[in-house]
């Protein structure tokens, strides 16, 4: 779960419906500046928020009617946040619940940094994604028709069909005639006619969506088709449902540096007894930090605590600045957890064996070298880092 934590001058919570919306705007101190019910129109919304446009963020729960509001905010340059409906328990769990209260709670969650976010799917591909979902709905309808044919055949204890009736129209020819009762035969005939219609419709629909995908993101589509077992339809589903893979939280950041050999030859450059040891960024010369990929978003809200033996991402004062550096907690450092140390420090692993080695590193003599404090007098070098499967034997380290 991710939360929206950016600070703004004004926070607008909207309880949105198909034809009406309840607005609540708070200032930075939490005072209510506007609390009003409006018609769902761009003109009404823009007029209401006009005095508070500076530093405004708009938040709304992810229900069916949010598309126009997101597009309007994008055109007007207004920050827009979509709330994850499942996690907005502050709204759904309230005993006293109405539009006025819900709008205030949305605004309060935004201001308090506790607004669980959903993905605002870009407008350029959104309609095609919805068309793909409609295709999946039609395919399920087709499957229900075929299941009804199979179940009816079993109800009357008739012989199994000679082939798979789902494959083609030819396989379904004449199956209604095997039922003696005229009404049952008519029912099966209708099922077959509808199934034939769905086959034609779905083929045309898939062809259209494929053409759209080739315009939207042909490279990703090609890569998806190269995966064994991923066919044309599954590739389209993955393309349009995922859209941007980077929107998902990735715990593999550390492993990607491991696989690239980044940590070989780096040092533990910061050792603070009874606190933590930090490494993964510098070589023994302590010159410039080794090159890294772009930093990742802070994931300290994952519920994991900075307890003794846990491994967490090191960062600067910017919560979203973690790259390759990590630290191992020497004791329970719960003051580094989210909500206590502000954005917190994201725990992603645990030392399962060798904590005695960590404690030995923590006991080495330290000094200062240039801008770096608490540097071991004799470099503690990471010779190599390897990825192993759970339960697999660990190979001997390189000499």
Q: How are the elements arranged and paired?
A:
Elements lengths: L2 E2 L5 E7 L3 E8 L4 E8 L2 H8 L6 E6 L5 H10 L2 E5 L5 H4 L6 H13 L3 E4 L4 H33 L13 H4 L9 H35 L1 H8 L6 H11 L10 H7 L8 E5 L3 E4 L30 E4 L12 E4 L17 E4 L4 H8 L3 E4 L2 E5 L23
Parallel strand pairs: 2-5, 5-6
Antiparallel strand pairs: 1-7, 2-3, 3-4, 6-7, 8-9, 9-11, 10-11, 10-12, 13-14
Write up this protein:
The chain has 399 residues and is of the alpha+beta class. It has three domains: 116 residues, 2-Layer Sandwich (Nucleotidyltransferase, domain 5); 124 residues; 124 residues, Cyclophilin (Beta Barrel). It is built from eleven helices and 14 strands. Strand 8 and strand 9 form a beta hairpin. It is extended.
**Main pleated-sheet profile:** 7 strands, mixed
Q: Which range best describes the helical content: under 10%, 10-25%, 25-40%, 40-55%, 55-70% or over 70%?
A: 25-40%
Discrete helix count: 11
Number of extended strands: 14
Query: What is the straight-line distance between the termini?
Result: 43 Å
Structural class: alpha+beta
Specify Rg, calculated over alpha carbons: 29 Å
The best one-word shape is: extended
As for the number of domains, it is 3
Query: What's the pLDDT, averaged over the residues?
Result: 90
Adjacency order of strands in the biggest sheet: 1-7-6-5-2-3-4
Order of SSEs: EEEEHEHEHHEHHHHHHEEEEEHEE
């Amino acid at each position: 779960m991710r939360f929206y934590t950016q600070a703004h001058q004004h926070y607008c919570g909207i309880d949105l419906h198909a034809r009406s919306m309840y607005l609540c705007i708070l200032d930075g101190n939490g005072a209510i500046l506007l609390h009003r019910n409006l018609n769902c129109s761009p003109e009404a919304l823009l007029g209401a928020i006009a005095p508070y446009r500076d530093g405004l963020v708009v938040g709304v729960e992810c229900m069916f009617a949010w598309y126009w509001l997101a597009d309007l905010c994008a055109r007007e340059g207004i920050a827009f946040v979509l709330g994850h409906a499942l996690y907005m328990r502050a709204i759904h769990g309230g005993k006293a619940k109405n539009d006025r209260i819900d709008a205030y709670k949305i605004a309060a969650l935004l201001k308090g940094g506790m607004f669980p976010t959903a993905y605002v799917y870009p407008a350029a591909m959104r309609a095609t994604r919805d068309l793909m979902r409609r295709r999946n709905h039609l395919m399920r309808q087709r499957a229900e028709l075929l299941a009804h044919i199979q179940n009816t055949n079993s109800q009357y204890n008739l012989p199994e069909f000679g082939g798979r009736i789902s494959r083609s129209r030819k396989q379904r020819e004449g199956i209604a005639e095997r039922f003696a009762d005229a009404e049952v035969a008519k029912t099966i005939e209708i099922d077959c006619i509808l199934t034939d219609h769905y086959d034609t419709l779905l083929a045309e629909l898939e062809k259209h969506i494929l053409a759209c995908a080739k315009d939207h993101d042909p490279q990703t589509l090609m890569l998806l088709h190269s995966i064994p077992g991923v066919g044309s339809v599954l590739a389209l589903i993955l393309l349009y449902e995922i859209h941007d893979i980077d929107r998902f939280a990735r715990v593999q950041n550390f492993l990607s540096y491991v696989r690239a050999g980044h940590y070989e030859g780096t040092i533990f450059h910061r050792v603070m007894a009874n606190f933590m040891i930090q490494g993964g960024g510098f070589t023994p010369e302590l010159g410039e930090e080794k090159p890294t990929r772009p930093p990742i978003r802070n994931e300290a809200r994952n519920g994991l605590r900075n307890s003794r033996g846990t491994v967490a991402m090191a960062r600067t004062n910017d919560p979203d600045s973690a790259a390759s550096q990590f630290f191992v907690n020497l004791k329970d450092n719960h003051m580094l957890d989210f909500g206590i140390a502000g954005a917190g420090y994201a725990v992603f692993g645990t030392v399962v064996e060798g904590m005695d080695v960590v404690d030995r590193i923590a006991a080495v003599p330290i000094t200062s070298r240039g801008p770096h404090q608490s540097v071991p007098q004799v470099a503690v070098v990471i010779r190599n880092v390897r990825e192993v499967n759970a339960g697999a034997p660990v190979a001997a380290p390189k000499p």
